[in-house]
Design brief:
Strand content: under 5%
Helix content: 55-70%
Structural class: mainly alpha
Oligomer: single chain
Strand order of the largest sheet: 1-2
Low-confidence stretches: none
Radius of gyration: 21 Å
Number of strands: 2
Shape: globular
Distance between the termini: 39 Å
């Protein structure tokens, strides 16, 4: 998985390096930064892609975040599956990367994943076209509709308008369409699959129930708090509550955010989307497992929800991923405070945005130093492929020696 993502980034970098991709010269570091950001569906960019890249270059970027969002493993195994049978370990890798159980049929996963992705992106492009057709010529309206629909569904956050969707902050159709695409992309393919099988099973899995619960709770909470802390409409507050979970689009100047607004956005970015989705972050189910199990530790009893008990293995993985995420963010944040001349909260915002593959910035990205860009590139890459690789690696059974237990004083 790591090698696959890296080779995809390298391919994108080489394509963007071609003169046909650029309208004006772009440094090698910036090109690699954009390629990494696209494959990792982050959206952070030190240059304005609408100004420095040609239509060919923008199409390369669109291809990169489509592959990055859909998942390199899915693309590769789909090709292998179409040509010949794949081995057992590769099939398991695809299941793990999308969050499916080992019993799920690989053919059905790939077919449903690709069909659902293309269908949702097509509908999103049609809805965006209704607005863009009134502003742009026909060809450009079609291209912008397709680009932004794919970008939104894959939670990539790339745009061709220089100031994201600020010029559309009074257009409910555009903002709501993009917001719905972000939500659908961030829910995860396992939930789609669960809904597809509902007619047969007559019930939803615990995973899907937690995803729906946390998604709704975070959207409502984020909207209300942003409305109270910022001087924005309910529509803009809702849009930012959706987007800051991993998408990277914005409809107003984020450099004007208040400190409470920045704090709630950092919190929402850190949690992120759901497992097996196009989004990043800690993930909704991981955060829920940590939060719910923590309350049970002090109150006693099993971690039971919706008449089901969350397994100890899942809780252990959740705390492990949480600790890992904090370690990466704190380390990267520390190095950025050394290399960059920006405020404390702006650098923390940038670090969390990169790790959670969100793509929002409060003005730091365009002014990053060389070392700052290298740090953010590494954080974006780790944030996108690190968690997948870790989950896959710890899913195998290892034989361990059992030593006697001994109490340790805590607190």
């Amino acid at each position: 998985m790591v090698l696959g993502f890296f080779l995809t980034i390298l391919l994108g970098f080489l394509l963007l390096l071609m003169p046909v991709s650029q309208k004006e010269p772009v440094s090698i570091v910036d090109l690699f930064f954009v390629a990494t950001s696209a494959v990792c569906v982050t959206g952070l960019t030190p240059v304005d892609i609408s100004q420095v890249f040609s239509v060919f270059g923008q199409t390369v970027i669109m291809f990169l975040f489509q592959v990055g969002g859909l998942g390199f493993a899915v693309i590769v195994v789909f090709v292998l599956y179409a040509v010949s049978s794949t081995n057992f370990s590769v099939k398991n890798l695809v299941r793990e990367s999308l969050g499916f159980s080992p019993s799920a049929k690989i053919g059905r996963i790939l077919k449903y994943t690709l069909l659902s992705t293309l269908t949702i992106e097509f509908i999103g492009a049609l809805l965006l076209f209704l607005s863009f057709r009134k502003i742009f010529p026909l060809g450009k309206a079609i291209y912008n509709s397709v680009f932004h629909s794919i970008s939104a569904y894959n939670n990539a956050g790339f745009d061709l308008f220089s100031t994201s969707l600020v010029s559309f902050n009074q257009n409910p159709l555009v903002l709501i369409t993009v917001a719905v695409l972000i939500i659908l992309g961030g829910i995860g393919y396992i939930v789609y699959y669960d809904l597809l099988m509902y007619r047969k099973k007559k019930h939803l899995s615990l995973h899907s129930k937690i995803v729906f619960l946390m998604t709704g709770l975070l959207l409502v909470t984020g909207t209300v708090i942003l409305k109270l802390t910022e001087n924005e409409s309910w529509l803009i507050s809702f849009f930012h509550s959706v987007s800051c979970r991993t998408a990277g689009f914005f409809a107003s100047d984020l450099t004007l955010l208040s400190s409470p607004g920045i704090l709630i956005m950092i919190f929402l970015m850190f949690i992120g989307a759901s497992p097996g989705s196009t989004g990043g972050g800690l993930k909704t189910t991981t955060f829920y497992s940590i939060l719910f199990s923590t309350t049970k530790i002090f109150r006693g009893g099993n971690t039971t929800v919706f008449n089901r008990t969350i397994s100890k293995d899942s809780i252990t993985k959740a705390f492990g991923l949480f600790s890992l995420a904090l370690a990466i963010i704190i380390s990267a944040f520390f190095f950025l405070t050394v290399t960059e001349n920006a405020s404390f909260e702006a650098l923390l915002f940038e670090t969390v945005s990169a790790y959670a593959t969100v793509g929002l910035t409060v003005g730091v990205t365009p002014n990053l130093t060389l070392w700052g860009k290298i740090i953010i590139i590494c954080v974006m890459f780790i944030g996108r492929v690190g968690a997948i690789s870790i989950i896959t690696s710890i899913s195998y059974n290892h034989t361990e020696i059992k030593y006697p237990d001994e109490r340790v004083c805590i607190g």
